[in-house]
Amino acid sequence: MFYALMKKLFFYRSTVFFGLTLLVASSAVAQINGRSASNEFFLDRPESTKYAVILAGPTVGDENKSRFKQWAFSLHDILARDYGYSADTISLLFDNGEAEAVGAERIDAACDLNGIEQEFARLESIVETGDQITIYLIGHGSGTEDESKFNIVGPDITGVQFSQMLDVFDQQDMVIVNTTSASYGFSASLSSEGRVVISSTRSSSEKYDPVFSNYFIQALDNRNGDRDKNNRVSMLEAFNYAKSNVEEFYEEQGRLASEHAGLDDNGDALFSLNPTVAEIDGRLAEIAYIDNLVDETIGLSEEAIRLKSRMQDLERSVFILRGRRAEFLEADYWQQMEVLLIDLARATGQFNDQVNGVEQ
Amino acid sequence: MIKLMVLSSRAMANKYSLAAALLLTIAFNAAAQNAGQTNTGDSPLFRGEQLLMTGSYAAASDIFQMADGLDRNEGLVGASKAFAMMGNYQEAMSVVEDAIEDDDYARFPLLSTQLAEIKRSVGESRQALAILEAAVSGLADPPVRTLVQYGSLLRFVGEKQIAAQILERAVQRYNNGLVFSSEDVAMVALASWLLGNFHDANSLFNEATRANPNNLEAHALWGDLFLEKYNASDAERSYQEALDINSRFTPALVGIANVVGDERALQRALAINPNSIPAMETYGQLLLVNGREDEAQDYFERVLALNPESLKTLSVLASRAALEERTDEYERYLAQVESFSPGNAEFLGNIADAFGNNYLFDQAVEFARAAIAADPQYWQGYTLLGSNLIRLGEEVEGKRNLEIGYENDPFNVMTSNMLKVFDTLETYTTQESEHFKVHMSQNDADILWPYLEPLLEEGWDTLTAKYDYEPEGPILIEVFEKSEDFAVRSVGLPDIGPLVGICFGKVITLISPDTLSANWQEIVWHEFMHVITLQMTGNRMPRWLSEGISVWEEREGRPYWGRSQGLDLVRAAEQDKLLNIADLNSGFSGARNSADLGFAYFQAYLVVDYITDEYGFEKLVELVDQYAYIKEDDQRFDEVFDVSLAQFDEGFTSWIDGRVAEINVYVHTEDVPDEGDGHGHGVRENSSAILAELYNNASLKQHMRARIEENDRDFQAYLQLGIVLFKEESFLEAKDYLNKAYELLPSYTGYPSPPLVLSQIYEKEGNREAQLQQLELLLENLQHDYASAIILAEAALQGGDYQRAEYYIDRAIQVDPYRNDVHQLKADYADSIGDSALAVTEYEVLLKLEINDPAEAQTNLAEAYLKNGQALQAKENILRALETAPSYQRAQRILLQSVDGDSD
User: Fold this and answer.
1) What is the DSSP string of A102-117?
2) Higher pLDDT, residue B37 or B713
3) What is the CATH number of domain B430-664?
4) Nearest-CA distance from A345 to chain B in Å?
5) Is the Cβ of B849 closer than 8 Å to some Cβ of chain A?
6) Domain boundaries, chain B
7) Mutate to test the interface with B, among A249, A320, A341 (most CBs of B within 10 A)
């Protein structure tokens, strides 16, 4: 496939500008026995653009309406505030598009078939190869398997229909976060190689309104979900953050959990409940970030660029060692890890000295 | 016989006109009988069975006796059963006995078996045995029922080997395909049960009830099997199925009463059959549990008059004699049982059970061992032995015995439940302090233990010194994360009601505070106090006094612990619901709901408070000492207080009157007691607050204002009015009413209380100082509030008042040590005062609790280790943080510091 080949070439031609991209992608690669296509997707180039489409369907009852609205608006604001999205790169299709509501300036269109089709047509006209589209579904779902639907204004849309609408974006990286009730069947229809699909439920029988969305958005807010402290939140991190908090929510309530979120990023439509980079699902989600990579080398001295490169090499070595942990005795593993981490810490200190010197 | 009945009816008709109708009916029946049919056209046997099945026992007894020809013997058996169901055992015997010609029992096996069954039920086991022996030995193929009843009776009289052979014959008959009727299948089920094949028995009862869903006996026996195995839900279902067919079937009514303790079911059973021995036995036991000993004794005497061989009643009476160390009396009961049922393991097992239920575990173990020695195949004995050993802290031997019980009787729910708890315990860790050994989950070991250990040792030091008594240790404490495990470990069954901790003398079981919304430290203190009072008296403390002292010591432990139930006291005094000393135990055993149980604890506390207030603490200890000896309460109170029980009660009542006058609030009749879980350990919801949900604000305000007009000391009216006005944001007026409510009853701690609502008003008004002041007032009396303690701790820390911050952080931990925010606060506090060791403890706990940012938590811990001079631990933790987040610069700096002291 041309796109795949092109991406591969792009990957191997990478320069120091894409060092961090490479680093993260390679880390995933390093943890995989054999090959997957993960290096062809989510290359996370500074020049690519990331788009977000929030679809918030209709609901009945003030409580649900208020909750869905709060989630949709919060997500919109967080993406704009913390992740550099603009009015051009973020779209909100909300209920019937109510223009009079408080905060309605965020709303771009109604969440109906026409609104969705128009939004995807608009996106199709502006996206470029390698851009990333994140689609976030809020609201109610229903049905099972092929008949699974996302409730929108007017006739509901099935997963199969929705999947067909996404086919045009075969040159873009895609993340779909489906947080509706009974989201599983719909989400499964969207599974495809190179896509990260997150479903707030693991089966169609989980029909109660999930709280997953609340915690997923919380993970993005202020980068709460950033577990590896790289100041970015990957889909895997956001998923794990939300999942842990959902579990705690039900435990605190003393209730049996009525939702179990799953993630699929290898296109097999089977959702892992505990995705990690060491498992079948998780490798792609780990390098799928919600925000754009910032080129951190602009304006640096040669020595600083050398040190940055050294830091990236060391960081990659840490990831590689971490991925091969099972091959080592515990003591040997930590001995090697300590050497790498001390080197990395010292290199970082020297880099900071350099940068501060440049600034002075 | 029919003629006689007609004559007799005629005589009655002359006297009572109402009976004339009956006479006509019977006469008609008699006429119909002449034609071999009843007035419905059915045969008397068929009609009699229908009447028996639906509970028309009198009519059934008449109709059955009309059966003739081939149906005659079956009819007489039916009549005998009908008489027995009405408690007319003499008639039940004579109606069959008269028909057995020349006492040739083998010629009339059905009649003989029925006769033997009735004789056995009225304590004539020897004669019953002789009848069945003759019937079985005289027939090549005795009926299945005859064989099973014979086998059962042989077991009862101690002939276990022969019994097994006879019962096996019945089972073999079934295996050979020669048992067809539902009634006989039920008998084979009974034989399997008696042979210890419980699963077979279960399957056969199932088969019997499927073959004939109207087989009441099978349903009831199946229920009995479940009941014996502590499977209450299936037992209840079986009994209920019988009662759905015949609501007057007394064995099922008694069964239901055994399952749910329903006194009305027993009253109904006795209304149907005033001589029902099982009903009277069960009733007697129920009354005994509720402390109504005289009434219970009446029932037991009536039972023994009807059946001197009643094993259950003799067990109860012997247990009481043994418990009260009336050795001669116990020996007499034992000899009585030995005379008709030598070596009866069940009798000894019942006594072991009674000792266990009375917390006398050493003696329970002795009797359980004796029961097993009497019959090594008495599997319940191993369960009794195991469960009581566990309560003595002898876990290894306890488990071994439970395993023997389970291997041979896996049907026993109690045994399997208790063994499952051992599976849970295998995943737990054991922590030890100087005087305690604690089994708990790893989570609790990480989070709870740092706070539990000092509390336990403080409790030991304080209370052993105060009571001048050092209990035998180490005290074993088991902290269960699942309430089902706690319940099973405590009582063998998964439902224990509102209890949150139980003390057995040397062993305490607790629900993990992780599952509670209550002050867990108060609970631990309370339970440890039981260790002292139970051990001081050899576990002979009455429950009321033990609970009373434990509750009393709560407030002695911390001024804000204990119960503040002023409203309940005033209400109880007004309604004259305070119990006399002699009845205090029934306040616990007879509690119908959580509110009743909570008040029982409170009244027990009041009695202890009265004793210490009126007579002094030393007298309380003297009273406890008195319970180490067996004597009457009258004597104990006389020796300690120099007053009779009645005088003591009088003194207590007048003291209560003084307390009520001191509280001086009015309790309106429409208000009900506050409700809460944990019988007083935990927040109690203000039940009157529901009014605000039921009425609109205007009506409620009008109503409450009218109540205040009526009585200006109506606390709840002020409080409810304040709450409504707060909701309406009429803050000024709300504050007036809430302040008045607070003045009336400052110790009120129901939810919501005046200080809580006032604090919310001040918060809305932005008056931080007044808000905090109200929260302080709230916490003066309320020990279960986490959120208020956190707010006060944060404010104190911000204001640099570290002593105050420490106090409120501790108050929050007392309620919930499993939340991040309180540990973060404590870590901040530790950092603020430069206590690096404390900071390490807190960051260690925080690491266990953190789910969102483990790298940050690990970095904080590493930093704390570094400050505490623990460079190696710092390095280990920071490496783990950096493994996840290699580019985290703060962590990198700590790594370098930990390896070479670099700061950058």
Assistant:
1) TTGGG--B-SBHHHHH
2) B713
3) 1.10.390
4) 5
5) no
6) 343-426, 430-664, 850-904
7) A341
Both A337 and A273 in one domain: the answer is no
Alpha-carbon distance of B405 to A312, in angstroms, equals 65
Substitution target from A342, A344, A346 for chain B, most B beta carbons within 10 A: A342
Q: Is residue A252 part of a domain?
A: yes
User: Residue B797, CB half-sphere, CA atoms under 13 Å: how many?
Assistant: 22
Write the pLDDT tens digit of every residue in B86-114. 999 999 999 999 999 998 999 999 999 99
d(CA B103, CA A265): 88
For the CA atoms of B661, B663, B665, B669, what is the dihedral angle to 10 degrees? -80
pLDDT exceeds 60 at position A12:
no
**Domains held by chain A: number:** 2
Is there a single domain that holds both residue A264 and residue A158?
yes
Mean pLDDT, chain B, as a whole number?
Answer: 90
How far away is chain A from the Cα of B489, in angstroms, using its nearest Cα? 21
The alpha carbon of residue B886 is apart from the nearest alpha carbon of chain A, in Å, by: 6
A224/B853 Cβ within 8 A: yes
Closest residue of chain A to B888, computed from CA coordinates: A229
Q: Measure A310 CA to nearest chain B CA, in Å.
A: 12
Please give the Cα distance from B446 to B425 (Å, whole number). 16
The reply to whether omega before B474 is within 30° of 0 (cis) is yes
A199 and A162 housed in the same domain: yes
Q: What is the mean pLDDT of residues A32-47?
A: 60
**Under DSSP, is residue A217 helix (H, G, I), strand (E, B) or coil?**
helix
The number of beta carbons lying within 10 Å of the beta carbon of residue B347 is: 24
pLDDT at B901: 66
Q: Does B879 touch chain A (CB under 8 A)?
A: yes
pLDDT tops 70 at residue B642: yes
DSSP character at residue A44: -
Does residue A222 share a domain with residue A315? no
- Let me know if residue A99 belongs to a domain: yes
Mean pLDDT of B356-379: 94
**Rounded-to-10 torsion of CA B232, B238, B239, B244:** 140
Residues of A in contact with B853 (CB under 8 A): 224, 226-227
Residue A133 lies in a domain: yes
* Among candidate residues A235, A252, A287, the one where a domain is terminated: A287
Query: Which residues contact residue A273 at a Cβ distance below 8 angstroms, ignoring those fewer than 6 apart?
Result: A202, A243, A260, A261, A262
B850-904: CATH topology? 1.25.40
Q: Which domain holds residue A135?
A: 40-287
- Dihedral of CA atoms B613, B618, B624, B629 in degrees, nearest 10, equals -130
- The answer on pLDDT for A6 being more than 70 is no
Q: Do A227 and B855 touch (CB under 8 A)?
A: yes
Do A58 and A103 have their domain in common? yes
Same domain? A344 vs A205: no
CB distance A150 to A156 below 8 Å: yes
Predicted confidence (pLDDT) per residue in A54-90, tens digit: 999 998 888 888 899 999 999 999 999 999 899 889 9
Contact B887 A344 (CB under 8 A): yes
Is A245 in Cβ contact with B851 (below 8 Å)?
yes
Judge whether B17 is closer than 8 Å to chain A, CB to CB: no
Domain B343-426, CATH: 1.25.40.10
Would you state the pLDDT for residue B584? 86
- ipTM tops the 0.90 cut: no
The per-residue pLDDT for B31 is 41
In a domain, residue A19? The reply is no
> Tell me: the pLDDT tens digits for B268-293?
999 999 999 999 999 999 888 877 88
- Give the gap in angstroms from C-alpha A346 to the nearest C-alpha of chain B: 8
A contact residues 295-324, partner B, Cβ 8 Å cutoff:
311, 314-315, 318-319, 322
pLDDT of the residue at B678: 59
* Percent of chain B residues past pLDDT 70, beyond the cut: 94
